[in-house]
Amino acid sequence: MEYLNLQQGDCSARICTYGAQILSCQLQDAHPLLWLSSAALYQPGQSIRGGVPICWPWFGRSPKPGRPAQGFARLVDWQVQSVQPAQAVFRLTDADVPPEMVDFPFRLQMSIT
């Protein structure tokens, strides 16, 4: 898994390309603003417990059996489109997702600043 670190003034954030998930956000010399489980697993196919996950295209149980709860967007690697000191832009398309998880075309873009 790849990680990006953003910095703006006294605030920093750490983002994982797996799920385009924000793992931490913290002001300098302060407690973290986000919860991240010490038992979080960083393994493909497993959700990362904590941070800010992207639950898409559904929240909760899948409307179709055999598909992951909270959607598949948090369980796949997103493509990094651009990175600046205080911004990262990610993209996910149906071509990035295993065919058993999706049966419709889509293109998502996530900008984290």
Helix share of residues? under 10%
Oligomeric assembly? single chain
Mean pLDDT: 94
What can be said about the biggest beta sheet? 3 strands, antiparallel
Read across the widest sheet, the strand sequence of neighbours is 1-2-3
CATH architecture: Distorted Sandwich
Outline the low-pLDDT stretches: none
Total strands = 6
| Secondary-structure element series | EEEEEE
Beta strand %? 25-35%
- Taken from the alpha-carbon principal axes, the silhouette is globular
Tally the helices: 0
Our count of domains comes out at 1
Query: Structural class, from secondary structure content?
Result: mainly beta
**CATH topology description:** Beta-galactosidase, Chain A, domain 5
- Per CATH, the class reads Mainly Beta
Description:
A three-stranded antiparallel β-sheet has the order 1-2-3, with no helix packed on it. Strands 4-5-6 form a three-stranded antiparallel β-sheet, with no helix packed on it. It is globular, with a radius of gyration of 15 Å. It has strands at 3-8, 11-16, 21-27, 79-84, 87-93, 107-112. The protein is an all-beta fold and 113 residues long. It has a single domain (3-112), classed as Beta-galactosidase, Chain A, domain 5, CATH 2.70.98. 0% of the residues lie in helices and 34% in strands. A hairpin with a 2-residue loop joins strand 4 (79-84) and strand 5.
